[in-house]
Amino acid sequence: MLLTILAFLLSCLPAPAASPTRALRLETPPTPLPDTLRATGPDSLVQAQCPGYATLRVGRLLFVGNSVSREVVLRAELDFREGDSLTAATLGRRLEANRRRLFNLQLFHQVLVQAVCREGELTLLYSVQERWYTFPIPIFSLADRNFRSWLDRPDRWQRVDYGLHVVRRNFRGRNEQLLGNLQLGFNRKYELFYEAPGYGRRRRVGFGAGYSYYRSHALDYATVNDRLRNLRQEDAFPIERQYATVGLRWRRTVQFLASLDAAYHYERVSDSVLYYNPNYFLNGSRREYLEFSFVNTLNQRNTFAYPLTGQYAQLAVSYRAFLGNRTPDNLTVRARYSRYVALGGPFYYAVGATGQFRVARALAYPDRRALGYEVLVRGYDAYVVDGRHLGLLQQGLTYRLLDLGKLRLNGVPSTRFNTIPLVFYLNTFADVGYVRQRSVPVANQLPNRLLASAGVALHLVTYYDWVFTLEYARNREQQGGFFFRTQFPI
């Protein structure tokens, strides 16, 4: 009913004025987030230059604007090479599809394509505008639940986290990524990760590796009344975790990815944790295990940051083999599928489904996570639901409310920062979720119960793939509230 009412109200609003039709020059105008609604077809300019040709040969393939990005990385994303023949009737759609592949590398603010034909031979030019690739972000956060409780403590300046988070994207111009965390203070974290999606001319096989060490003065040790119970120790660390991982990557393009990883994990909790939850690890205060994971992803969305059309599918399988034979091994399979449809005009529809299946003779408390962590039924943000199996269905109706184009910032010389795209979307949504658990503590009511919610949201999409979402959601328990998120919800 909520979806129907909002759809009617939105239909009464004036739609954005349609842009005049132009002869296709195979040059996509710079837009904050290109979508598949723009009609593409045979290029009138190419037809005028080479009339009567049913097929056209790619003679030269050129790239401009990629001062950092290596050309071999860009060529690997295209589905044609010099010497290939392209059908004239589908040339526009073919070049546009390849332009979007380059854009979805998420290395560029915009990607344009132009074509020139002479005697049946094409010269194709892809022009890119590179982003800024190095982001040092200072870390400063309070180690209390809010500012008031932190301010009331006499040792408040000892209860802060500080440090530096550094991300270097497009490392060496090869779409590699380096990520480092140095966090000191109340909670300690030291991390270094390297990710290379592909090596060689075809960029098919890649590599990933990383190491993480973490310890904290606080730990969520149990779920009571469907909320996390937290233990804080001022002079000790109730949790210590570290792991090292290596893996292989296989990719055909940015749309087809697969990864195979192996990791060693070591985890330890203090005796105080076992006092409150003796079965936190099932056996003792520490555990070690090897984890093997495989993830296969098909990503055919028009844009990865805020998709409006296309589809997304992912299958993830992980197996944990515990060392010492004290804890049963477990297997987790999670699948996700999302579909994005243009309804015409400024309206779009999205639906997504997630399912998880977990097999084990027994599960430790940290391994029972289901809804409320990586995925959730919107409106249940204050709760967590533990269990072996889960199902989640989300849907949303979106209206393009306001497209301000690109705002120019005078006085900022860098082209990487002096234009800010701003697009606003109005969204209404409905979620349904369910978690299956064999035995549930009496205090927890949400496992083995159908969860449902509905709400409205305002989405802001801007540069560097940032999405800001302000939602009002109301759940089946007749609880409502406003929530802020920083990612596309489906």
UniProtKB/TrEMBL annotation:
Position of the signal peptide: 1-17
Keywords: Membrane, Signal
Location(s) in or outside the cell: Membrane
Keyword Lipid metabolism among UniProt keywords: no
Transmembrane segments: none
Pfam family, one: Omp85
Entry GO CC: outer membrane
Domain of life per record: Bacteria
Annotated ranges, domain POTRA: 57-131
Bacterial surface antigen (D15) domain: residues covered: 170-458
Keyword Magnesium attached: no
Protein's name in the database: POTRA domain-containing protein
Lineage: Bacteria, Pseudomonadati, Bacteroidota, Cytophagia, Cytophagales
